[in-house]
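Case study B.
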Amino acid sequence: MKYNPRTYEAYQLFHDGILALSRAEQAGIRVDLEYIDRKKDHLTRKIERLEERFKGSDFFKHWQHTVRGKVNINSNVQLAHFLYVIKKIKVEKETASGQGATDDEALQKMDIPELEDLLEIRKLKKVRDTYLDSFKREQVNGYIHPFFNLHLVKTYRSSSDSPNFQNIPARDEEAMNLVRKAIFPSVGNQLLEIDFSGLEVRIAACYHKDPALLKYIRDPKSDMHADMAKQIFLIKDFDKSVPSHYILRQAAKNGFVFPEFYGDYYGNCAISMACTWGKLPQGDWEPEQGIEIGSFVPLFLSDHFISKGITSLGEFTMHVKKIENDFWGRRFPDYAEWKERWFKIYQKYGYVDLLTGFRCSGQMGRNDSINYPVQGAAFHCLLWSFIQVDKLILDKGLKSRLIGQIHDSMIIDADPSEVAFLAEAIRRITCEDLPNAWKWIIVPLDVDMAISPIDGSWADKSKLN
DNA sequence: GGAACTCGCCAC
DNA sequence: AAACGTGGCGAGTTCC
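Model:
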């Protein structure tokens, strides 16, 4: 990547930033070595049991027979050969290089019960070999010291390694617990985590200044995702406190709004939503496959959709296409125009400039030229705040320490007696000082905080407010 | 026997 | 017209 700050301020941000980050690296993160050893043994035994069962299956025996006993169940090359060449299963999903895929989605689709064990084995090995192992390998006196880099990412975000602190399981409940139970504050302390809510959407609005989107951001009573759920699922009296409606709101948010903002289109969105809210197995379905609406929509919506003339995945896809047109054409036309303008700027000059003074150049696609400046500037809001919090801790001689950062959040190994002070100061830094310092921030910013009990693990954190 | 590659999968 | 952005890393594999 080409590091190219165009202003003194941009240079200074990374200069101060890397110093603050290096202090976090030095402080490190405490890990529970006894837990790691115990859990690794436990996982190993569990994996062995699953492997034994898998190796007893007819599926495996057939596989083994075809290669004269030399099966490596970790090898996807061997697995792909067996599935697609020996068993002649039709390739429904390809890898980037055009081979038959053997990932979670591809295996799910084959509907071979024995493969469930293989997927479970993969998941447990991921936890053991990628996370617990690396914590043990990298720790010094019970602390890991992940690196935080500012010179590797083309969007001017950060990256982390040795171990990577930015990809610790969060969504999968089981994996999250297994790994985060290894991560602790220093003795007598608490882990305090502060993250910006909806940061990238808000920063995007600072570029395009679309009035309708600004209104959604500024008016706490408005709810864009609920409005989209209403429109996509044809619900008149939407109420997000109704559990089923809340699920549809999530489906609209993660299956339509965010992908559209990132540059995806209605085709993928329709399928992803059909998979998200229930019954359609994850995968790249063709809308033309004639899948009936009742086979993937919950009962209470199925008749409802049919009464509106949407009876298949194909028709649902066309429905989402109309919503996409409405989304960019009527709801957020200024945003849509900005995207066009922005890509044209890149085509004309060969670069795009971030609001924070950095320049992205080199080969970029349409989505890249639009996404990079948003992603980068959003991270810079976090970095600026991180530097201020670091400074505050040094100036006040606090005992708490910043220990890490994950793009839009920061983590502190906090002395309990300093938590209240820190929480208030950080709210001021992030929500008041930052927008005051950077005049281009024309939207309100907001943070969520979470905290672990004293001497509790990162898996035990709960909302702080 | 190490470098470079593919694949799969974790995060935001 | 085109069709989801950014990383790190482990295991297996291939190349030299």
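Chain A has a mean pLDDT of 90. The remaining cases will be described in the next quarterly update.
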